[in-house]
Design goal:
about 60 residues; mainly alpha
């Protein structure tokens, strides 16, 4: 679980659980969420996009 979170930094617990399910692990979301919180894992906050300082027509 921790290796996958290092590899896929922006994935949350649901997406990581889906990856483990695809890898033939039988994982439910609820216990996985508890493990996620116990390990202190969090998805990093998405940075806002920077706005343009000029118009698109070159002016």
């Amino acid at each position: 679980m921790i290796e996958l979170t290092r590899q896929y930094g922006r994935y949350g617990y649901r997406r990581i659980a889906a990856l483990l399910r695809d890898a033939v692990w039988h994982v439910n979301d609820k216990p996985f969420e508890r493990l996620w919180r116990r390990e202190g894992l969090k998805v990093p906050i998405k940075q806002p996009k920077k706005g343009r300082l000029w118009l698109n027509d070159g002016s």
